Amino acid sequence: MERRSYESGAISPDDVEMLGSLFDQILDEYQIPREGEEAEELAARLISIYQTGVRDVEMLKHLAIRPQG
């Protein structure tokens, strides 16, 4: 099976696991319900940021969290 790079839009299983863990961490830390629009938007932002080439977990988290207020 051929593995595609992130440039093709594919996300490796290891990175899916990392993104899922980070998603769960942010939901817990910011008390965001797993079901709902806010969680869906967070997931979309994480994937979008990842697809721009950001791989650092702390940077992904920082960029994915919207400023409160």
Share of residues in helices: 55-70%
Task: Label the structural class.
Answer: mainly alpha
Which sequence of SSEs, written as H and E, runs from N to C?
Answer: HHH
Strand content: under 5%
- The total strand number stands at 0
Taking all residues together, what is the mean pLDDT?
87
Distance between the termini: 47 Å
CA-based shape: globular
Biggest sheet features: none
Radius of gyration, Cα only, in angstroms?
13 Å
Describe the structure.
By secondary structure, the protein is mainly alpha-helical. The chain contains 3 helices and no strands. Helix 2 crosses helix 3. It is globular, with a radius of gyration of 13 Å. It starts with 12 loop residues before the first helix and ends in a 5-residue tail after the last helix. The N terminus is likely disordered.
Sequence-ordered SSE layout with sheet pairings:
Blueprint: H1 13-29, H2 37-51, H3 57-64
Helix pairs in contact: 2-3
Give a quick summary of the entry.
By secondary structure, this protein is mostly helical. 58% of the residues lie in helices and 0% in strands.
Features:
mainly alpha, disordered N terminus
